[in-house]
Structures are given as C-alpha cells and as structure tokens.
Amino acid sequence: MKPAGCAMSDRASKDLLLDMKDVHIEGFADERWHPIIKGVDLQLHRGEVLGLIGESGAGKSTLGKAAMGYTQPGCRFTAGEVMFDGQELSGMKIKDKRHIWGTRISYVAQSAAASFNPAHRLLDQTIRASKRVGDRSEQVLKSDAVDLFRRLNLPEPETIGLRYPHQVSGGQLQRVMTAMAMSPRPDLIIFDEPTTALDVTTQVEVLSSIRDLVAQFNTAAIYITHDLAVVAQMADRIKVLRYGEEVEQADTRTMLSSPEQDYTKSLWSVRSLEKPEKSGEEILLTIENIDAAYGASKVLHDVSIKLPRGRTVAVVGESGSGKSTTARVITGLLPQLNGTVTFDGAELPRRLRDRSKEQLRRIQMIYQMADTAMNPRQTVGEIIGRPLEFYLGLRGKEQERRVIELLEMIELDASFYDRLPDELSGGQKQRICIARALAAEPDMIICDEVTSALDQIVQEGILNLLQRLQGEFGIAYLFITHDIATVRAISDEIVVMWQGKVVEQGMKQQILSPPHPAYSELLLSSVPEMDPDWLDNLLDRRKHENVSDPAQTGQDPER
Amino acid sequence: MFRLIEVIGKRILLGLVTLFIVSLIIFSSISLLPGDFAQAVLGQTATEATLKAFRESLDLDKPVITRYFRWVAGVMQGDMGNTFSGRSTGGQGIDVSRPVVEIMLPKLRNTLFLAGVTAAISVPLALMLGFLTALFRNSIFDRTANAITLSTIAMPEFFLAYMLIILLGGYLPTIANVRAETEFLQRLLLVTLPTMTLTLVIVAAMMRMTRAAIINLLASPYIEMARLSGASQAEIIFRHALPNAWAPIATVIAFNMAWLVVGVVVVEVVFTYDGIGKLMVDSVGSRDIPVVQACALVFAATYISMNLLADIVGIVTNPRLLHPR
Amino acid sequence: MSDSQTQHAAIAETSTVRVRRTRWQRMRILFSRAPLTAWFGMVVVAIYAVVTLFAPLLAPYGEAEVFSRGDAPWSREHLLGTDRIGRDVLTRLLYGARNTVGIALGTTMLALLIGGSLGLIAAINRSWLDQIISRAVDTIMAIPGLIFALMLLAIFGASILSLILIVGITYATNFFRLTRSVSLNVVVMDYVEAARLRGENMVWIMAREILPNILPPLIAEFGLRFIFVFLFIASLSFLGMGIQPPTADWGSMVRENAHWITFVPFVPFQDAFFYGLKPLLPAGCIALLTIGVNFIVDWFIHETSGLRDV
Lengths: 559, 325, 310
Prior knowledge:
- The complex is a heterotrimer of chains A (559), B (325) and C (310).
- By secondary structure, chain A is α/β, with parallel strands linked by helices.
- Among the domains of chain A are: 46-70 and 91-272, Rossmann fold; 283-378 and 440-527, 3-Layer(aba) Sandwich (Rossmann fold).
- Chain A has a 6-stranded mixed β-sheet with strand order 6-7-8-3-9-10, with helices on both faces.
- Chain C is an all-alpha fold and 310 residues long.
- Chain C has a single domain (35-68, 75-305), classed as MetI-like (MetI-like fold, Orthogonal Bundle), CATH 1.10.3720.
- Chain C is 72% helix and 0% strand.
- Chains in contact: A-B, A-C, B-C.
- At the B-C interface, helix 1, helix 6, helix 7, helix 11 and helix 12 of B face helix 5, helix 6, helix 9 and helix 11 of C.
C-alpha cells in the first residue's frame, strides 16, 4: 500500500462527474422559508476529493446532501441544477433517485452510532445497497466487505461484521460506515464530518483509512468538515462556504499558503494564535494526591495540579481522561476520596455545601455549552445580576449599572440587558457566561472546553477576551480542553491527563517540545496540523518508530 | 442469552411484587372502613348476636395479617369468600350467600368475550390507520383523522353509546342480555353496539399512539441513512423501521388492552351487559365488599400482566439485550 | 484585530439567532396561525366559563326546585322539559356546568399540586425519597384508576370530598411522573449546576431555575389531565358513585334520564333523536367541553414542543 496523497492533484482527471450550477435551497423555520444555500456552483471530477469547509450554519452539510439531489425534510430546491454524470438530480423523481443513492453516490454520516440500524448486523447493513444492484452474489459481496474491513484496519475483519452496532466502538463504526459506502463501488462518496465526534488519536487512524480507500478505488469524494487541518489532509481542492455562499475556492496548497479573502484569512489566523508563557510566583490553588470515583468506578488516581495566581494552566486530554472530573472535585460537586484541595493557603472543604459563600465566590466556572449554561427563561440582566445580588448585595439601580459595566467589559452593550438567551448568537452567549463569572469578582475561573462548541472565528474573540480580562484583573484560569491549538493560544502551563492520571505537567514550551512520555507523544502528534503533508509524515514516522496504534491493536482508547 | 433471561426474570418478579402489594392494598382497604364494619354491612337493625356471628365468620376478631394470608391462600385455591348479600341477618335465617367465584366466573367469561371481540377488530384497524397517518403525515387524510380521533378520545363512552343507540337502535339490539346458553352468532349480534362503542374509543387512542411511535422512529438518523442509501419506502418501513418498532407498538397495544379491560365497565352498564364490570358497579352500590375485592383483584391482575407482557416484548426485541457486548 | 473591531464583531454576530420580538408580537403571531379547531376550542371554553360563573343569573329556576309534572316535554315554562321527578332540565344543565366543571377543575389542581411538588422534590433529591415515592406511584399506577376509585368509594362512601381526594390522588401519579421526568432533564442542565455552585438554596433553584422551564409541558399536561379527570368523574357519576343528588351534575343527569333511551328502538327514526335528547344533552355538554379543551391542548403542545411540521 503506497501512502496516498503525494500526487493528489494529478489524480483528478478532467472527466467531470458532478456539476452543480447556481443551487438555491430554502428551509422552513419560524413560519417562513429562509434561504440556506444562495446560489452555489460546484464541480467535481472523477477521482477528485473536494473539501467543503465552513462554520456552523454555513450550509455545508445541506450542500453536501444536495449533491445527491436530497434535501432534508423541511427544505427544498428553489433554483439551479445538479448534474450527476449527465443526469439532473434535483428535479428527478424519488423513484429514479433510489437507483443512484447508495449505489452510485453514497453518504457517510457524522454520527455512525445513530446512523446504523440497531436491529441488524453490521455485515448485512454494509452490503445492503450493493445487493440491490444485483450484479454480484451475496457471497462475493460478503467477502468483498471483509476485504474492505481489512483495508480499513478494523480488528477481526472476518467476524466484526457479525456484530451489532452497539457492540463496536465509535471509531470502528465510522470505518464500517466507510466500508458500507464503498461496498457498491460508487462514483462519489459524501463524507459529512465523519471524524468530528471522535477523539484525536482515533481520528488519525480513521482519516488515513478513508484516504487510502478513496485513493485505491479512485472514488470522487466531497469531504465536509469545519476543521481546516483535517481538510488539508484529505482534499485536492477546498471550497470555503459562509452564510450559504461560496467565499472562495482553490487547490489545497494554494488555499493554505495564500488565501485571498479576508474571511478565509481570519479562519486561518485562529490557528496561529499564540501567547508567550509566563511563570507564576505565588500558587493560588493546589490539588494534591486526589482520588475520586463515581460510585464504584474510580476515575481519578493520585492527581496533583498547581495553579499559579493570575496564570493559565491548560488541562489536556481526551474524553475519559478525567479532566472534567478534576474540575468537579475542585468545585466540590464530587467530593474526593483522598487528597486535599488548597485554595489561597487554606484547605477547601470537600463538599460543596460545607463551603462558605466567600469560598464559592472566589472560584467561578464557565461551561462548554453556553446554551445549557444559561436559564432560557431569564434575561441577560437577571443572569448577570444574580451573582451581583447574591455575593455582593447589589440591588436595583446599582445592580443594573454594574451589569451594564460588565456587558461593556465583554464587548457587548446595554441593549443586551433585557434579551433572552435564544436571542443571542453562540459567541454572545459565551460572553454572557463570562460576564456572569466575572460578576462574582473571582480569583480563578475554571473554563471547561469553553471554545470547543464555537466556530473558529468566534473562538478567537473569546480567547482574546479571556486573555485581556486576565491582564486587567489577574484572574487565574484552569483551562480544560482537548484542542492543542487552544492550548497554544492561551496557556502558560500544561497538564496532560490520561485515564484519570496526570501524565505530565510543566511550562508550555517544555511540554510541547520533545521528548514526551509515550501518551503525550501519541496525543500531541495526533493533532492535525495545517500542513497537507502532515498525515503522510506522521504515518511514515509512526511506521519507523513503531508507535503502537491503539486502534490497530484493538484497544480503542474509548473503550 | 443468560442476560436476557435474567432481565425478563427480574421484570416478572417485579410484576409479582406489584401484584402482591396491590392485593395487600385491596385487602387492607376493608380495615380502612370507618366505623364498625359489621354494623355498616348488616345495618342498624342487626342484633348483637348476629353482629358477633358475622364478625366471626369473617375472622374480624383475628389480626389483619392472619386474615390477609387466609384470604390469599383462598384466592390461590380459587376461593374468594362468600358474598355479603343474602347473608342471614336474623340469628337463624337461611344463609343464601354464594361463593364469589361462582358468581364471577360466567361474568368474567362474558367480559373477556366482549373485550376479545373488540380487540380483534380494533388492534389491526388502529395499527393500520396509525401506520397510514404516520406515512402520509399532514395530508388531508391525516388531518381529518387527527381531528376525529381528538374528538372521539374526548367523548365519554356513554355519550358515544347513546349516539350509536339513537342512530342504529332501530336495527341492532340495544340491550345486550346474553345468557350462558346464548349461541355464538347471537352473542355477536348482541354485542355489536357495545363493541362499536369500545372500538371507537380504543381505535382513536391506539391509532394516535401508533402514529406518534412510527413518526418518532422515522425521524431517527438511521432511517435517513437508509433513505440516502437508496432504500425504497417499503424497504424503509419493513426492514428498517419495523424491527425497531415492536417494542413501542407492543407498549401501545398492551396499554390500550389494559385500558379496554377497564373501559368495559361503563359500556357494560349502558348496555346492561352481564359482565364483571357491571358486577363490580352493582356490588359497589350494595357495598358487597368481597365481590368488590375479587373484581378489583381480577382487573388489577389483568392490567398488571398486560403491562408486563408489553415490557417483555420490548425486552426480547431490544438488540442491545439480545446481543450483549 | 483592534478592540473596536472585536466589539463590532461580537455585537453583530447574528447568523442563527431567533428574531427579537416582544411578547405581544409573539402572541399575535401565535394566534394568527391557530388552526380552526383551536379557535373552536377557545370559543367553547369561553362560553363554558361564562355559564360556570353566572349560572344562578342565567338559570330560570332554582337548582333543586321540583315541579309537579315529571318527564315533561319541551314547553314555554320548561324550555328543555323536566326530568323524572320534575326538575327543570335547562336549570339543572346550567348549574351542572358549575358543579361538574368546578369539581373537575379543583380535583385536577389538587392532583397537580400533590404530583407536581412531589415530582420536583424527587427530581432534585434523587435518593431514598425518590425511590420510595417512585415505587409507590408505580404501584398505584399498576391498579386501573377507575377500579381503584370504585373500590375506595365502595369503602368510604360517595361524597364530594372523598371523590375529590380519591380522584386527585389517582391522577397525582400522572403529574408526578411527568414533573419528575421533565425536571430531570432540567436538573442536569449546566445552569442548575451553576446555581448550585453559586451556593443557592434548594427552594431558589426549584422556583427560579427549574419551575419556569417545566411550565409549558406542565400546562399542557394540566389541560390533558383535566379532560381525563372530567371524564372520569362524569363516568363515576354516571355509574352512581360520583356527585350525589340533589347537586346537579351532568354525569348523574345522564343516568337520571337514561330511561328515555329505552324507548329509542321502538320509535320511528326521526323521533329517536327527540327521545334520546334528555340524556344526550348533558352527555353532549361533557363531550363538547372535553373536545374543545383537547383541541386547544393539541395546538398548545404543537406550538411549544418546537415540532413544526412542514
């Protein structure tokens, strides 16, 4: 198997497979038809991989499905055409579309766990669409599927197909879905954020399997994602979407090295956000030898972390590493079994209810999902005003004045005072949450993945804001994240966690540069970079160094 | 497989525990009766001797626990005690009270007949309509069905029954006076109107629940995935949706059958049908507690086992339990 | 990026935001797309409300006033005739609205109060308390409601108080389950955790963070359960176990005039309706209200669940 991608742009022949012209799609919401796609052109040649990127609401998923001539319930084509291999799809009868869907164009969904039918075995689902074509016998299809499983590096390729969806891990399911899409040897596969739900170490393996397979069968593909570094590995050509319109399009290397539009440049710039590290003198929070458990299952083993005053410590790890549990111990939501949490020289009571109001005030928290962190029935004024009243006793006019001050601090204005959360955008909501934390005038804020649910361009604003507030008020951040780019942008020190243990702790530069302990190496090297050759180089290096690949040995970190 | 049996076993055990508690409640309700029980039943005219005899015959002088276990032991052997009505009230009058079971059995048979006929008609009809309205969602057909079923559900059974009597009373029997010796076809004719009444109510409720369950199912991502892999409408429904639909459908059926068993009460009274529901109402009127208790126990047991059955169907069709990791 | 630019960007982010409208505007939009069935329901409920409030002013005679002629046909003195013992049917219908609707409403409120508060407590305090209440509710729900009520009424005797208590407790189980399950969805929200971390007490969290968010499903459930309670009490009255004479109520009125129905098979079809009218009228009054409320609830659920079918 030759590592694919070295000559990706040569692969695209001049044979046009898909030609979408001036596509318009509308969706029904709030009792009106809203435009979702506002006239996009898209060409795809045989064997070519097109990366479709954009932020949430850009319409990339809708456009991807439109390439099949499909719109979700509640959406409709209003203009334009979708020519697939000489046939117009958007106006085609559903009966005729079925002869194309699943056999000539197939689709790989974001959530494999939800997209497999729980009642059928994986192998049966893998070959179902091919069976409908009827040109190969069931036996042939089954052995072909096993072959695909093998090519996709699935463990036990002979028997994994006999399992049911709930019996395999998410990363494996995503690969089975790729096999299912490939089984009928389609001309085109739509990948709709196939690795977004996966941990980074799992993602590498899935990405390389998908890419090899697509190259081996010379299948054309549309690869939809919001992650630039991922798309850089997968695509020959990149198209950037925003608000349902094309921003620009270019081949991958050109796009990465010299984007033309301001919007694209701003997307790129978030990645390069970086701050110089500063070491802290005075330690504000110390947690020592913490053990914690949910019921009988122990999730933290002997965790010790120090947070200096006015500095940012990033806690990095994948899902299940115990980083959020650590935050729960610090806040007192989950009393630890052993060990101590010391804050500003005094030991904190284990339980939330034993802590004083003053202790609670000084440690605040910001959450990943700003949507669920704000009561949808309270106005911005009530949300920010409550801690002012609760901790500082501010009421009436005084409280209102302070809320508006805080709003200005987070770069919003007084007009937001009586808005409800669902009248705010994602970034604005997160800003309100920051203001609520700020209102208590805390010494430290725990930030739990505060940017990972936001679009990249909004992330930059939030990170800059947090940075500025730290400069002004000397607040310390315990910054929990799985995203290395964010870590670079904000942290002074880094703690790497894995399976409930601290693997490594130190200053940013020290942690980010080799040598690393084995797990840190695996984690850090798995984070995609904006270099189109990154994946090739990584796989090469791993082959030589013989780094154990958790997915290949069957020990998926998720399980 | 072992896991599956374990889960089912637990569920059955839970059902038995529930039945036990329910029987306890039904039984102990006698002790809740305000005032002197014997006095209340036999009336102010009863002599002290009669009262004493009555109390002894019911073991009222014994502790509640003893009485409960005697009652349970009796029920297990098919003895639910004797009726109050017809008990000798004078010291030496003839006791014409009868065993509750003897009275109840033929009536239970009648009720099961009525419920059975209704179920045989309404289950297929409701499932079919539920499927159709779910598939043709928001069509004129669906909207009409929605308005009609919303109305039928909201109507009291006796209103529906009287409407039917007024419309069809000239052609069909309005009094369902079945006897033990009534022929099968004659029986069917007699229960036509009661069956129609019950069917109207049941079909409406069951159809709406089926529709909701199917729509819920059709909204799952794997159905969209099946559609995107070119599956036909028939394939989507029968191969992708149906295997996952048994559990919700079984719940819907069992829920409505359980409801049906109770719903017969009013209909039996309207059409003076000699079933267990009417027996219970009559006995409540005459405060014939042993009969009321027996009827309540039968109703509750049916109700509990229906729900138990639904849960078991849900368990055995759940792939997660059928094929554990 | 300079500060002013950032500020501009933060305020101008509006891509997927709900349009900002005042409450009044939202109400108008809501009503402007109410379906015909919902309007029908609202008109019915409005009429019933008027009758319920002003029954004594509207009724021509006293609630239990008995006239010499029983089973009288329609006439100028008795617009809808009299019942078997000579009470004016129209008067009884009007007073019946008051008693039947009032008692059902009171019972539903009692059920909501008991079930709702226990459900809320169980959702927050997920310990032995939740276990005990949940198991007790499971058991009560394992007994068919009508049977449970009939049995208890046989023991305690039929009075309005015991009726309200028995039916209220029976239906509290439904409210308990719903409140508990929707509260559980809210309790896990980060904003509730944020309130706990702030140090707020349980009462504040229940009243300010949870209650406003479970209100829409609770209101819908209240409407739905009101229908069932109403039908339930009507059925009990019809069976003779509910509201007792001389209090006028529709369920008992059906029962009191049921003998007319027996004539139906023996009269020509065009007269059948006339003979059936007296029992049918109160039954129809019950049906009309429940259908109306059902239409409103259906619309309300449709609007608040966010399920906007296209």
